[in-house]
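Standup, Tuesday
Yesterday: got the pipeline producing structure tokens again.
Today: sanity-check two examples.
Blockers: none.

Example 1:
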Amino acid sequence: MKVLSIVETAYRATAEEQDDTILWLNTMFKGADLDVSILLRGNAVNYLVNGQDASGLSFGGLELTHPPKIDEDIATLLDKGVPVHYVAEDLADRGIPTDKLVDGVKPVHRGELPALLGQYDQVWHW
């Protein structure tokens, strides 16, 4: 079974955990031999920016002791053979230049989404 996991909600639970729970979950699925791919859209395209640094982030007097390194999580997924796509227009809407992205991610334009979705047995949207 081929699964496309669409991540649109960014920074879900990253204050409580040291990673995005959905990216972590998909990493575990890949480890269990699920044929999974990722599509980042909306605010989640921010995950692709190399060198993000959330150290020093605090809420009131509570400081994050293990800040997320989501760009490294994306690189880990790629290293495990998980294709990572992103919606090109969502990246452009946020003013993120493509030369700042994690190497190996693949753009897809909105008009190409139906063809991409059609390549999968199941599509999960988070």
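Example 2:
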Amino acid sequence: MFLPEFDRDYLTEKGYTFEEKVESNQNYLIIRNWSLPKDQYNVEQSDLLILIPRGYPDVKPDMWYFYPAILLKPENRYANATNYMQTILGEKWQRWSRHSNDWRSGIDGMRTYLQRVQTALEVAR
């Protein structure tokens, strides 16, 4: 397991079903059945994958992925910068290309990162 204890404790406290996976020297956090904003996407839940970089939590995660892919309603179209599929752990994951420069080393962790994911989902166009 590669996540710091404070992240594991947070994820458990929030009731998330999560897995820490390693493949080809890459660390991945998968949160199963991530709830999406109501009535905004073609599905209510999707698995969320986050690439955990070496040096985390001092180094920030950058992008995240969904499986299955999620589409904006009512047009059933990809949100901006989400139409690339990447094979990870044997599945084609939808990459959400979102970047942030406000990571605070020693302060931020999954608690703040998942808030950023949720905000991006809510404002996606």
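Quick observation on example 2: The chain has one domain: 5-123. Residues 71 and 78 are 5 Å apart (CA to CA).
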